[in-house]
Structure formats: C-alpha cells, structure tokens
Amino acid sequence: MSDQIRVSTETLQSRAREYGKAANDIRVILNNLQRLQDTLRSEWEGAAFQGFERQFLELKPKVVNFADLMQQINTQLDKTAEAMKQNDQALSKNFGIQNS
C-alpha cells in the first residue's frame, strides 16, 4: 500500500458528484420502470404477468439499495475531500503558509 495521495480535493469532489449523479440516474430509471410496470399491470393479466411482477418486486429493493450505496459513496468522498483540504491547511501552518 502506498503512502502517497495522488488525487486533488477538486478531483475527489468531482468523482463524488459523479457517484451522486449515478445515484440520481438510477432512481429516475427505477421510477420510469415503476410507471411502466404500473401500465403493464393494467394491460396484462394472468399467471405470466404475476411471475413477471414478482420478479420486478424482488429486484426493486436491490436497485434502491444500489442507488443508496452510490449516494453513500458520494458522501464519503465529499467528506474525505474536505478532510484532505483541512489537513493540508493545518499542515501548511507548520511552514508559515497562510491559506485563504
């Protein structure tokens, strides 16, 4: 394991935003699929649809959990970037450097 950090706080914040956007995109897609599922429910009856519906309902929480994970990664990366920035500012004081 390396002791060097090779990413800037700005890059880390950018990556965090990408994860946040992915979380939002997943939620939008899931909402669209839910509307499609609701439409199909009114158009398709029988055992085949019931099986299809069951699969959808089993998969939906996993997709929600994945979106939640993407949002958690977003938060963790943001917090890490902020900690890196604060640490750099604190260390710069050892050299008499004033950060604005």
From TrEMBL:
InterPro entries (alphabetical): ESAT-6-like_sf, T7SS_ESAT-6-like
Pfam families registered for this protein in UniProt: WXG100
Gene3D superfamilies documented for this protein: ESAT-6-like
Family statement: Belongs to the WXG100 family.
NCBIfam families: WXG100_ESAT6 (TIGR03930)
Record's protein name: ESAT-6-like protein
Source organism (scientific name): Streptococcus oralis
